[in-house]
Amino acid sequence: MNIRIKFQKYGVMKFIGHLDMMRYFQKAIRRAGIDIAYSEGYSPHQIMSFAAPLGVGVTSDGEYFDIEVHSSLSSRKAVQALNETMVEGISVLEYKRLPDTAKTSMSLVAAADYLVYEKQSCRILPERIVELQEKVQQFYEGQKAVRITKQTKKREIEMDLKPLIYEMKALNLKDVQTLHDLKVKNPEILTLSEDSQRDPYPALFLKISTGSADNVKPELILEAFCRFHHLPYEDLNLQVHRLEVYANADEVPVKGERERNSYQAYLNKQKKQYRQKGMAFPQFFTLGELGKDID
Amino acid sequence: MNKLALSDEILMSVDKPARYIGNEVNMVRKDPGKAAIRFAMCFPDVYEIGMSHLGIQILYDMFNQREDVYCERVYSPWNDLYKIMKEQQIPLFTLETQEPVKQMDFLGITIQYEMCYTNILQILDLSRIPLLSEMRTEEDPLVIGGGPCSYNPEPLADFFDLFYIGEGETQYFPLFDLYKSIQKQGGSRRDFLRAACKIPGIYVPSLYETSYRADGTIVAFTPKYEDVPATVQKEIQMDLTHAVYPRKPLVPFIKATQDRVVLEIQRGCIRGCRFCQAGMIYRPTRERDVQMLKECARDMLEHTGHEEISLSSLSSSDYSQLPELINYLIESKEKGVNISLPSLRIDAFSLDVMSKVQDIRKSSLTFAPEAGSQRLRNVINKGLTEEMILHGAGLAFEGGWQKVKLYFMLGLPTETKEDMREIPRLADQIARRYYEIPKEQRNGKCQITISTSFFIPKPFTPFQWAPMYEKEEYLARARVVNEEMKEQLNRKSLKYNWHEADVTVLEGVFARGDRKLGQVLLKAYQKGCMLDAWSECFDNQKWMEAFHECGVSIDFYNLRERSLDEILPWDFIDCGVSKTYLKREWQRAREEQVTPNCHIQCGGCGAARFQGGVCVEHQN
Lengths: 295, 620
Description:
The structure holds two protein chains of two kinds.
Chain A: E1 2-9, H1 18-31, E2 48-50, E3 59-68, H2 75-84, E4 90-98, H3 105-108, E5 109-118, H4 129-140, E6 147-151, E7 156-160, E8 165-172, H5 176-181, E9 202-209, H6 218-228, E10 238-248, H7 257-276, E11 284-286, E12 292-293
Parallel strand pairs in A: 3-10
Antiparallel strand pairs in A: 1-3, 1-4, 2-3, 4-12, 5-9, 5-10, 6-7, 8-9, 10-11
Chain B: H1 8-13, E1 37-43, H2 47-50, H3 54-64, E2 69-75, H4 79-87, E3 106-110, H5 117-127, E4 142-146, E5 162-164, H6 172-184, H7 189-196, E6 202-203, E7 208-212, E8 218-223, E9 232-233, E10 261-264, E11 266-267, H8 278-281, E12 286-287, H9 290-304, E13 308-312, H10 322-332, E14 338-340, H11 348-357, E15 365-370, H12 374-379, H13 386-398, E16 403-410, H14 417-435, E17 447-454, H15 471-485, E18 494-498, H16 502-511, H17 518-526, H18 540-550, H19 554-558, E19 573-574, H20 579-590, H21 614-617
Parallel strand pairs in B: 1-2, 1-3, 3-4, 4-5, 9-19, 10-13, 13-14, 15-16, 16-17, 17-18
Antiparallel strand pairs in B: 5-6, 7-8, 11-12
Helix pairs in contact in B: 5-17, 6-7, 9-10, 13-14, 14-15, 17-18
């Protein structure tokens, strides 16, 4: 049985790197008594794969990994069992069953949402949200291409960030409605500046390409943004918070001919429903939407 | 959520920030305001090393069971953070509350090896506690040392307010009660120390004075006051089955050296190897009940989620209930638990066990003959014969193993060139045994790896009087081995590793040193010596300068053979094993006479007075 788990990572846990998070969950799964499947061989390991590694220092509301289990509790009980053994800074949000032939979350990742904002006393971004939004527009609409040079281990590569940015806007983190719309579960984990008087609290929302093909880091966009507006990026003390991770809505997330066909039929039905309601079919599905709760 | 002592910027700029944030699974959280005693427990090396230490896990669990005590942890910052903390004047903090160490009532430091001595000064310095105990005031925590090196605490006497000699399970609670009652009476630090020295196992160095002859040897070591005990007896937990053992050990986020459940099956060793300090100071050998161990194993695996369990003891094969325990663990292997079995004697039973728990092709067999010739093995009382090694290796080779690791020491008392040459010859014999197996039944070449370390005489061993050598002499001995390697028939199947000798010389000095070394440590730290156990940090030049500038001679400590009537710096400690026995063993060593182990015959070492363990359980 394939399971997809969604969790939050915040507070001091942001300093725990990706590999150590994997080790953390391997142990947590055992503590919680989840009946996970092991690979064959002399050193069997848990069948577990993470969707999209999170950089050290980044917090998140939307981390995913998949596991394979022999048997399962209900989603509600499994979430509870896992949360009883979590440390402060990790909360399990979802535990959903996937189709048996589901593709791994890692292979599906196509986009992610981020909030990017200043930490502590840093005041480089414009304080007024309208002004920040204007700057975003100048940066995004005002340029045909967002050219940057990216330093890889071997060489420098030229790239255009613009097609990798699906959405970019300014917003106020102190605005309750905004946070609600972003589905921020508990705003306190954003650890805004100690100086809580700061209101409005300017932030940038980014929906950007993620995954193995065209991965782009939010920091890279901020750097280009600052350079475009002659803001001192080096002095910017940023906190990056991931909100959600997505798959392309058009991608069929299962393997096997019969499964593919049945998913395609389901997708067509969905599209039809959207059309009938006069709504645009979404470009992305969250990774969690592809699974179902176990009762 | 706790506010961290270090800013995001600092944590993002240092290597492995997870070392400094605490918050691990099974970390104890308490309201520090409600604890009458706050105890900072320190392992003076980096987090990954310190977190692997069982003793701290035991005491952490035991202290925190008391409502009036909050025990937190401290480790050495790596040198990247050290620089930042010095520059930005950030005081050293505990992981749990992230509060300054200076706010604690006690700073307990476990002293596991000599090359961490400067780290202790680093910890005190960063905590802003005066390095010298005589400079400390009522504002400072009481600095208490423990662990194996406290069996000769003298080189560190200037820096500690007190030492706890022996096993921590027994006297810490009386010590805490005393602390509370002295506080209640409005007593001072001095009042506490004066009263504490009467608790068994507690040594307060400032209450004793040492006088020296012109040649540097000790004339007398005496208490300053009449009510201060002249000898300090080691503390020992006789009933290990009913002693505390942590069922919920801490689980670090980053990979520690021991990334597994550690189950201590027994304490002490019956073997009586004459070079081994642990084999003497932890006498008598005491086993834990197998039922208790099974329960501990189950609970610890459940509460940590670890996938591996390691049995810890000085000689696992001597544990009487080993088959029962291992079979129990193998059954839990179904649930994906790996078993690691260090210090196991190679025989049919252990090979059978290992073939069940490990991948034979990848794993290697380990033998520790310690000396190459039978003559020298008799001198050190290592009861392993060439016949036993070849027999064990033969069984293993037939079972499919092809890798063997061999551990030896160079520089043992009475060692001759012939003894050194026997090392590669023994390895070659093992290889020959491998090639006796028909070609079609074996799996290519065998790999025999020889590692040598240099022998360092330790206090409370029969070799405590033995001389050491100069650095060049150690390296020359390694060369003798290396030359002989080339003469061997199967030289292409043999590999030889040895170490630098600089650290050996320093370890030797501090292992058997006296109070005169305090100034050298201070000087070395001021010169920047720190994290000396890490080759990338170790700077021998600075150490040599420190000795030179203090006018302290390395040769005095290392090159003399101490006379049997010399007062040794650690003579005031009674570790259970008598000096008469050690002298007898030193004599027998020179006569190349083997002393039977505790199961076969009581050697009359003196530990029988504790009336327990092997001294009463295996009487015929």
